[in-house]
Amino acid sequence: MSGAPRNWPGAYRAGPDGAGNDRAGPALSATGLASPWPLLLLACATVYALRLACSAASGASLHVDEAQYWDWSRDLQWGYYSKPPVIAALIAASRALFGDSEVGLRALAMAGYPLAALVLAALARDMAGPGAAGAAASRWAAAIFLASPLAALLGLVATTDAPLLLCWSAALAGLWLAVQRQRRWGWALFALAAGVGLLSKYTLAAVIAGAWLWVLLHHHRQLPALALATAVALLLFAPHLAWNAQAGWPTLRHTAEITVAAGPRAGGWLSLAGFMAAQVLVFAPLAVPVALWSQRHSAAWPAVPGDAKRFLLWTTLPLLMAGALQAWRSGAQLNWVAPAHLATALAWALLLAASPARLQRRLALALVLQALLLGGLTLAPHAAAASGRPWPLLLDPWARMRGWQQALDDVAQALPAHTPVVVVGASRTVMAQAAYHWRDRAIPRMAWFDAPVARHHYQLACPYAPGPDRLPQVWVLADGPLPDDLRSRLGPLVPLVTAVVARTPSRRIELQLLQAGAAGGVAPRASLCP
Q1: Which tens digit of pLDDT belongs to each residue from 154-168?
Q2: 0.85 exceeded by the pTM?
Q3: Cβ neighbours of residue 207 closer than 8 Å, sequence gap 6 or more
Q4: Cα 429–chain centre separation
Q5: Which of 386, 324, 381, 407 is CA-nearest to residue 153?
Q6: Strand 473-478's sheet: what is its strand order?
Q7: CA gap 457, 173 in Å, rounded
Q8: What are the residue ranges spanned by the domains of the chain?
Q9: What is residue 74's DSSP assignment?
């Protein structure tokens, strides 16, 4: 089967159904064949501008991962301990354009979500076919994705999910156009998106595996073209593999540890069930119940093109299986299968394009309410803090990003202005946050390293470990209990200052700065993080 059936645009235009509901055709006649793009572009630009404003108005600083990515962006390489290089390069470009403020370094990454929505809109329109159904499907795909908690909350910060989701959607579009529409440039788009996506996050490998499943099972004549596109993607990925090999494979080892090996978090069938159920909250907590309640009014699913169903299923199945394995073995973060929701948005858009107008109106209302609630959730904690009122920790998406600027400013007052100083960070968190918030002071840092293998980026890049060189005065920065053998290796530690800053009514940051004794200058390795 190739493309949409001839009767797809008018699949439900026969008039009222048994329940007396008008079908999608009459409801869409007002728009007819009008292009959806002006409205889509305006909507995506508005959403992007509002999210920039929300990020700026939040009063929050950076998440620890963002601070670490910012630190990476000052020293661009083909790889880092836990991630490939695209997020660092993206933040470096954003800093060059907009500066080092929180919003400035986030700006380009945040743009990935509305851009992904536009790619989904184009793909949904092609899947649905020409005419009113295609225009409706494009609008629904963009709206469902942009109104999801996934895009609304992750879209406020700079994480690897931003380029991953954009590349995943572009890879889907390229694959569909190459196979279904015989567009040769679709293979180029697929190869480029897959290669850059792999350089963003290894998760992209799942859509490549899904592409092979779909083509092998349903379009085997396209296997040579898919093999060539995959080879090009791997060629783009090769410099990162070379970096990994030279560094001892830290990124691959880290990824394997969190995806395959059983971890300390609770796993099992209950964890798996909770993980799958929670995906409803990540995707559409208001719209899904409305759709389930209204499903008896719709018989549109059979009208969705069969090849579109198979395409979305096979290109998403490998990721869902990997996420389920993670959840079952050791628990999984909710965003680990985030790209699967791209296929969900597309499937739902195709379904709604041929659904009763009453259902479409209900879903539209649910999505608007969902978007408004999410927008309020991002601004309410700051408004509550400004008025002196407590705000529940679980409803504050910025909770883990608050207080770092003040805490590190308080600690910095105890650092000597002219005496050469090296700060040894006791955790990845303090290393990354100090890098960003002390960026104007350029204080050399080293990471405490007391294990056979590095456990985070700073232990790999600038470990405090035996070596041939001597250091100037050593100071220790900690955000919790000190490691067991830190005192024995550094000698007596003299507490200098403790900074305590409230994040929320129930959470606080407590930083401690200590000065090392005479043993602090004993020949550590001379690799310093600026």
Answers
A1: 999 999 999 999 999
A2: yes
A3: 168, 171, 172, 194, 197, 315, 318, 319, 339
A4: 19
A5: 381
A6: 463-464, 445-448, 421-425, 473-478, 507-516, 493-504
A7: 34
A8: 36-378, 403-521
A9: T
